[in-house]
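Journal club prep — side note

Before the paper discussion, L.F. wants everyone to see what a predicted structure for a comparable chain looks like in token form. Sequence:
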Amino acid sequence: MDFRRAMAGLFMLICLVGCALERASLTAQSAATSPASRGAQPVGKQQGSEASELLYITDRAPTVVSGNRLSYGAKRAIYLSFGSVSIAPRRSSSAGKRKFRVDAVSETGRFPATPYGIVATANGLHRTPQAVAAHEQAVASLQAEVARRLAAAGRKEVIVFVHGYNNSFDDAALATDEICRSLQNQFVCIVLTWPAGGVGGSFFGYSIDRESSEFAVADFKKAVRVIAATKGVERLHLLAHSRGTDVLASVVQQLAIEAYVSRSSLWQRYKIANAVFFAPDIDLDVASSKLFAWVSDPDLAFGSKSTPNTLPAQGSMHLTVYSSPRDEALKASTLISGSALRLGQLAVGNLPRDRSEAASRWAGSHMGRLVDFVEYPGGDGFIGHSYFLSDATIRADLVALIRDRAKSGDPRRQLIEIRRPFWRTSNTPQAVR
């Protein structure tokens, strides 16, 4: 590698370090005007107050930060914790624009340490009664937390957000809070936060963060399953950013296989209505392999035996991918991984020749209209990786997708059709209603 290429690589790595979410200033939103949200009361928010509360679920190890406040760091925990995180306005915020901070964190419960205890008996291996009892107690406690929030929510729907590389616990909570404020706090909001922000390994901690994201998959699959099984949940929306999309893709892959072998689907079994990937830091081929593993395996048992020609009805389940060919952080990731193309860079005009056929298989006719790709042509500043928070057009489109249940092509979503399922955001920003 010559000197210029080495310097370019270093520049890209600096960009990648900068992909920790750039905190966008929030302007207080007006009340929602769509029919779906009229009359609903904000959940997790006190009347007349801009403070809010989220449910968190994490496999980060706990730590103590300034002010003797509980938090969670970049080290891994062998157990899954959950509780409440309070968000409050910063004291320096102006009346017109509010910036927020994590105010307090309160842990409610934990799942048992993994791997769960097992015991050998004459009839084979069994989980220990203690492990099963502790697991069931944690499930009941977590579902009680979700149910409590559902009771106060105008929409009996849950938003789950998974963050990306180099994000702290506070970063993840604040990003989730921004998303939920855009949705007028009408949904139960949950942040799934994994041990990002590691400082070991190579590439400014990117390597260790990558392994920590893989570590989180089993825990997050368990969490999503528990949330979906909570009484009263009508729809589940799974959102992820950057490296978090790889975590979510793996979770969706495993849950989709679970659903398929039980002759069901992600919608029927887990009430998953939307999976939304923002700036996904995952290779195009890897994403396709994970998300559609069940489609490409006709020998997989559908119930008690395989039925090669049968696929279960997918109901409301839909995947939306937001990408930008100008995303500098993903250019760095491509350089590190040697990937042909990251999913978050996908655009009709920049497909590698040897990947054009693979990408065409994502088209609506091939995937039963399960997927939409939305290209964001803007740069979003120096790095261009956190546009899902900073760009008004993307936020408005997300609101139309999740809150208003508007499909691509609906006038409420200011998208320009390129060639289905590929779309581009309009240059004219639309205010979030």
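L.F.'s comment for the group: The first strand starts at residue 26 and ends at 27. Keep this in mind when we get to the figures.
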